[in-house]
Amino acid sequence: MRKLYVVAALLALVGLADALYLTIEHVTGQSVRCTIISGCSAVLSSPYAVVAGIPLAAIGAAAYFTVFSLAILALFGYPRVATLLRAVVITMFAISVWLIYLQAFVIREFCQYCLLSAAITVALLVVVVISRGLRG
Amino acid sequence: MKRILPFIIILVVLVAALGSAWYLTRTIPASPTLESQSSQSPSSQPPSSPGSPVAQQQKPPVVPGVPGADPPHVLGPADAPIKIEEFGDFECPPCGIFHPILEQMHTEFGDKLQITFREFPLVPTHQHALAAASAAEAAGLQGKFWEMHDLLYEHQNDWKKEFDVRPIFEGYAKQIGIDVERYKRDMNGDLVAQRIFADGKRGHSLGVKGTPTVFINGREVPFENLPAEKLRVVIQNELRSSSK
């Protein structure tokens, strides 16, 4: 059980690094160039990359930091944190599904860092579901 | 201690995340979007001082690289003091934005500029980039490369999201008055493929990783210097140093 919170915290750290990288790309404007390895320029320069003036990647970074914090608190036995952790991860998963849909059908470009973020969210969801299963 | 340990861990991660973000945003130069081009003429632009950021960045070494497609697509006189070589992808949005900037520079500096275009289709990032490069090269075999080049960039948003671009490009071929049947044959021919491959090989030998990548007299112009007002200063500086 405790191991799963460690896994969740580590996944959240990877997600945080990924989201921070995307935020920096967005803020510094590096993403406006087309590159061999990435479709991120089209994704990060799309109108969907900003919500109320805030880069979506920065919101993602905040979400991963929240998950990390909750996983650490749950690991140390703080009560009711696990429920909150599940709610945050489920919300992030729902948003990730929407973002994958936007990349596939609206922007029609995939950004591998965004896909990595979605994969981490799926992994977090699995970990959270397992942790709940173990608790019964 | 056990009660505050999780908060210490969280605080350490928060400080590390914010610190690294702050450090990286300061060390990576901000790239203004190419839309920030200015309409100022060269005469209204104050000359840059040798210590200005644009002048300081214009010092990468000249790398000869392997030859590209021969003959290259060139605009302007061979003895022009400023030789611009652009590696472009017709489907890349920043290349589409850069297209009028380069046209503007050509108008402003006239015979002082020689512009060479090199194909650098970003496959598979851009699904139609190779077809667009082939269309331009096929038109080039009939002496109408620049006409097709201009149409592809100017109408980028009309074709980049289409499933099948061939009929659209054939329409452009008709519009510029080339033999469409020959164009269709050439599109899939070896000569066009070899030209694109040769340009790509040259790009890789010069370290090109994205588009647009622009070289002036053999030196790469940093991406952040591609907006019109900065590119103009780079060209002016190069003109000044070439006249010494």
Tell me about this structure.
The complex is a heterodimer of chains A (136) and B (244). Chain A has 136 residues and is mainly alpha-helical. Chain A has one domain (2-135): Up-down Bundle (de novo design (two linked rop proteins)). Chain A contains 5 helices and 3 strands, in the order H-E-H-E-E-H-H-H. In chain A, strands 2-3 form a two-stranded antiparallel ribbon. Chain A is elongated and about 45 Å long. Chain A starts with a helix and ends with a helix. The mean pLDDT of chain A is 84. Chain B has 2 domains: 1-30; 31-242, Glutaredoxin (3-Layer(aba) Sandwich). Chain B has 10 helices and 6 strands, in the order ααββαβααααααβββα. Chain B has helices spanning 5-27, 53-57, 93-109, 129-140, 145-154, 156-159, 166-175, 180-187, 190-205, 228-242, and strands spanning 73-75, 82-88, 113-119, 210-211, 213-216, 219-221. A 5-stranded mixed beta sheet of chain B has the order 1-3-2-5-6, with helices on both faces. Chain B starts with a helix and ends with a helix. Strand 1 of chain A pairs antiparallel with strand 4 of chain B, so a sheet runs across the interface.
Keywords:
heterodimer; A: 136 residues; mainly alpha; de novo design (two linked rop proteins); two-stranded antiparallel sheet; 5 helices; 76% helix; elongated; B: 244 residues; alpha+beta; Glutaredoxin; 2 domains; five-stranded mixed beta sheet; 10 helices; 6 strands
